[in-house]
UniProtKB/TrEMBL annotation:
The FMN-dependent dehydrogenase domain, residue ranges: 161-317
Catalyses which reaction(s): isopentenyl diphosphate = dimethylallyl diphosphate
Main function: Involved in the biosynthesis of isoprenoids. Catalyzes the 1,3-allylic rearrangement of the homoallylic substrate isopentenyl (IPP) to its allylic isomer, dimethylallyl diphosphate (DMAPP).
Cellular compartment(s): Cytoplasm
Protein name (record): Isopentenyl-diphosphate delta-isomerase
Gene Ontology molecular-function annotations: FMN binding; isopentenyl-diphosphate delta-isomerase activity; magnesium ion binding; NADPH binding; oxidoreductase activity
Family matches, as SUPFAM superfamilies: FMN-linked oxidoreductases
Cited InterPro entries: Aldolase_TIM, FMN-dep_DH, IPdP_isomerase
Chief location of this protein within or outside the cell: cytoplasm
UniProt-listed CDD domains: IDI-2_FMN
Length: 323
């Protein structure tokens, strides 16, 4: 990825406004007799098999430019402050431009907690190992983005090695590997294939938030918005996977506020990734950003209390209506 492309993505993603999505159609019932206090609420869970205090994380965004370095520096300090897992942006650029390495290393310099590397499936097992070791990552994410590549003039056109690379990385990396989309949603067809490759963790990363079709359409001034037809809303992607037993499922794409997190967990997600929400925090002073995350955590607890539920595992029993 070119340095400018990364900066374009940041600027264009920031300019998009919040929109309605399928989480708005999922309605929950509250109770005025929860028999609980705020102190009873426990938000702790596991992320890729590792203990974490909260069910959300900073999802993949950036690296490779000066602007990306600053964003990673800011967000990794937030991640460290709250012990949130942080997924890096695509590390592919490290292999083309070694000067970009520091914009990824800065994350480990600031954050003692869980870091997840990020590559595309063109990368070989050896490159995946380098990506992980460079930032001492605890896990690796691999992003699938065929439509994004195809709508970019400079994007990939040959996807023959993707499945083989994923299979080999999952088998030999010796770290948890999560396969994610980039905001258009993993289709059931993709997920069936992913399972045959040995993958255990997926982030559906559906539509309803950042759309790379819209970002690339803005960059190239060619309107590809009709391809959003292929996208799968995050809430719908979770509902489609209701009976899935072999995979641990993570949710991202259009998680706008704490209620979207709670709805995702009710729909079966283990935890939620937020990109745009955290990107918007980078406009603030550090103390103001910390306050926003504190409020987010407090509001997660408030919603649990409204539902009369004290632990995340009990959310799975909460019923919902789709309107
Ligand atoms: C500026 C920006 C850059 C991104 N770059 C990457 C990337 O390098 N690798 C990746 O896996 N996903 C990338 N994503 C996709 C996000 O991880 C996420 O899947 C998507 O933005 C949907 O989440 P959101 O609606 O909370 O933004 C990027 C998102 C944004 C906003």
């Amino acid at each position: 990825m070119s340095k400018n492309r990364k900066d374009d993505h940041i600027n264009i993603a920031k300019s998009f406004k919040k929109k309605s999505n399928m989480f708005d159609k999922i309605l929950l019932e509250g109770t005025d007799l929860p028999d609980l206090s705020m102190d009873d609420i426990d938000l702790s869970t596991e992320f890729l098999g590792m203990k974490v205090p909260y069910p959300f994380y900073i999802n993949a965004m950036t690296g490779g430019s000066e602007k990306a370095h600053k964003i990673n520096e800011f967000l990794s300090k937030i991640a460290d402050h709250f012990n949130l897992p942080m997924v890096t942006g695509s590390q592919s650029i490290m292999f083309k431009d070694p000067s970009s390495i520091d914009s990824f290393k800065v994350i480990r310099n600031n954050h003692k907690g869980i870091i997840v590397g990020n590559i595309n499936p063109n990368m070989t097992l050896e490159q995946a190992q380098v990506a992980v070791s460079t930032i001492q990552a605890n896990a690796l994410s691999i992003h699938l983005n065929v439509i994004q590549e195809l709508v970019m003039n400079e994007g990939d056109r040959d996807f023959r090695l993707w499945s083989n690379h994923i299979e080999s990385v999952v088998k030999h990396l010796n770290k948890p590997v999560i396969v994610k989309q980039v905001g258009l949603g993993l289709s059931l067809k993709t997920i069936q294939k992913i399972k045959t490759l040995g993958v255990k963790y997926i982030d559906v990363s559906g539509s309803g938030g950042t759309s790379f079709i819209d970002i690339e359409s803005t960059r190239s001034a060619k309107d590809y918005s009709y391809l959003n037809d292929f996208s799968i809303d995050t809430a719908q992607a979770l509902i489609n996977l209701k009976n899935e037993k072999d995979l641990e499922i993570y949710a991202s794409g259009g998680i706008r506020h704490p209620l979207d997190v709670i709805k995702s967990l009710i729909l079966g997600a283990k935890a939620c990734g937020l990109s745009k929400w955290f990107l918007d925090l980078t406009d603030l002073e550090f103390a103001a950003a910390v306050k926003k995350v504190e409020e987010f955590i407090e509001d997660l607890k408030k919603i649990m209390l409204i539902l009369g539920v004290s632990s995340l595992k009990d959310l799975k029993q909460v019923t919902y209506n789709i309107v």
